[in-house]
UniProtKB/TrEMBL annotation:
<dbReference type="InterPro" id="IPR015424">
    <property type="entry name" value="PyrdxlP-dep_Trfase"/>
</dbReference>
<dbReference type="InterPro" id="IPR015421">
    <property type="entry name" value="PyrdxlP-dep_Trfase_major"/>
</dbReference>
<dbReference type="InterPro" id="IPR051446">
    <property type="entry name" value="HTH_trans_reg/aminotransferase"/>
</dbReference>
<protein>
    <recommendedName>
        <fullName>Aminotransferase class I and II</fullName>
    </recommendedName>
</protein>
Amino acid sequence: MPIARRLELIQYTKQKNCFIVEDDYDSEYRYEGYPIPSIQGLAPENVIYVGTFSKILSPALRIGYLILPEKLVDSCRKEKHISDLHTETLTQLALERFIEEGQLLKHIRNVLANMQSVKISI
């Protein structure tokens, strides 16, 4: 979506007092040019940003995340607790460490470097 349209959408959510749900499933991978900024980055107070680690790490990982406006954090945390008491903890803790140690960013950079070095010919 072009930046002008993104800004219009943000304006609409402010007027209607509602939220945008943004699923930016492949934002880490760009085949050419600079990444397009997420709507969440432009208006974090108006966007519920949904993501997963399936594409950037492994489909078997099955861990997703939400980046929420501050005013939604407590209610979403309560809903998560009520609806999903069985979330596997060890994998989440390992992923947390992987991210905190900078390994996720390093992985993404390596994948991007490898993508740019591959030449496809037909």
